[in-house]
Design goal:
One of its GO terms (cellular component) is cytosol. The chain has 324 residues and is an alpha/beta fold. The chain is built from 8 helices and 16 strands. Helix 2 packs across helix 3 and helix 2 crosses helix 7. It is globular.
Length: 324
């Protein structure tokens, strides 16, 4: 099979298309012939070494969807031919991938594999951010950075569905328009406007209950100035670079703020949590409350180019690698 392999960490050029043996499922695993793999910033973190892989070389990627083609010993929850999706695949930049059966979900008939590959990690991230990290509702005023990105577009629609006042930031007029078309009541072009000043203006000085920040270095500590006293700063990524070391006293100085650094894998720690999160995501997709926008598709052999575009912030919505 073909797979994208990383022999040493670095830039997009380290992504190498190679022939590899088809892996064999062990006890508790399924082997999936993939239709599509999701592209996410966590892949960049592993490629650069910001997040450490278990060993080198490794096949990149966590998210994907396809059809079960083999079962490991003891697997009874899936059958050969089932369509499945996952966010914990063992190297999804590949034509076939091993997945822990406990971390895969069956796809509803109404959801195709490309949509699932684009939605699972980003959509379940939006789910835990809006429903569990902070329970968003009609009284909530929130700020979401990178509003035109893959998570941002899903979160904007979902937060509006929950009744919130939704403020976003984006880096161009086109991205701002895209965000407005996907649930955002107000969008700030951070390249032309000071987002702290605009948040104060939009909220009449009240500020926000919660700020969702996947950007990192470029939005800190300004994000804290967008929060009302005892508001919550949710740092769930660092696309612009690693955050500086933080003196917790700044949370006191900015208004007795709360801060958290969550990840999806801390919110789907068991089968019940996975089923709840995926089920909530599938429901808002099926109802039409959330539409999954796939703006970039690349064949597997163009994974390096896909990474270049993602890191340059040239992408909008979701990006997938097509495999089948």
């Amino acid at each position: 099979m073909k797979a994208i392999t990383v022999h040493h960490v670095g830039g997009p050029e380290v992504l190498t298309l190679e022939d590899r043996d088809v892996p064999q499922p062990q006890a508790g695993e399924i082997l999936v012939a993939q239709k599509a793999a999701g592209l996410n910033f966590i892949d960049v973190y592993f490629r650069t070494g910001l997040y450490k892989a278990e060993s080198l070389p490794f096949v990149l990627g966590k998210e994907g969807a396809g059809t079960v083609v083999a079962l490991g010993e003891g697997v009874s929850s899936f059958a050969i031919g089932d369509r499945v999706a996952y966010t914990a695949g063992k190297g999804t930049y590949a034509e076939q991938v091993l997945v822990d059966a406990a971390m895969a979900v069956k796809l509803p008939d109404e959801i195709d594999e490309e949509t699932a590959a684009a939605a699972m990690l980003k959509g379940m991230t939006a789910e835990y951010l809006l429903r569990r990290t902070f329970r968003v509702g009609p009284e909530t005023v929130l700020l979401f950075h990178a509003a035109a990105g893959g998570v941002g577009l899903i979160a904007g629609q979902w937060a509006k569905h929950l009744g919130a006042t939704v403020i976003g930031t984006a880096g161009s007029a086109e991205k701002c328009e895209l965000a407005r078309a996907n649930g955002y009541d107000h969008v700030v072009n951070y390249r032309e406007e000071n987002f702290v000043e605009r948040v104060l203006e939009i909220t009449g000085g009240r500020k926000c209950d919660v700020v969702y920040d996947s950007v990192g270095k470029d939005t800190f500590p300004a994000s804290l100035d967008c929060l009302k006293p005892r508001g919550l700063w949710v740092s769930f990524g660092q696309s612009s670079g690693k955050l500086p070391d933080i003196d917790l006293a700044i949370l006191n100085q900015k208004g007795s703020l709360f801060a958290t650094r969550p990840s999806l894998f801390g919110y789907v720690t068991n089968r019940a949590e996975l089923d709840e999160s995926a089920g909530a995501l599938f429901e808002v997709i099926r109802s039409g409350a959330v539409k999954i926008r796939i703006d970039q598709r690349y064949p597997l052999n163009e994974a390096a180019e896909a990474h270049r575009h993602l890191e340059s912030r040239a992408t909008t919505g979701a990006t997938i690698l097509t495999l089948g």
